Amino acid sequence: MGSLTIEERIAVLEARVEKLEKAAEQAAIVNNNPLCICCKEQSGDYELNDTDWICDDCAQYMSDAGNELDA
Question: How far is CA 70 from each of CA 45, 46, 63, 64, 65, rounded to the nearest angstrom?
């Protein structure tokens, strides 16, 4: 990406975002759970309330971050 113009970098990143959004939608369809409210890339594994879900990776990260703040 070093020799690309800003516009070319933006186009590459937008294409990557579109690909990730499609993959996330497909994952949500497979698991029948909404997307994670944190990363919006994976389907939620844990229900936080009626509409919000969080994936296992983000839940672990949040737990680790909370433990660091408590120390």
Answer: 25, 23, 11, 10, 9
Length in residues, the chain: 71
Residue type present at position 38: C
pTM above 0.70, yes or no: no
67, amino acid identity = N
DSSP 5-71: -HHHHHHHHHHHHHHHHHHHHHHHHHHT-PBBTTTSSSB-SEE-SSS-EE-HHHHHHHHHHHHHHH-
Those residues with Cβ within 8 angstroms of residue 18's Cβ, 6 or more apart along the chain or in another chain: none
pLDDT (tens digit per residue) in 6-35: 999 999 999 999 988 887 777 666 667 788
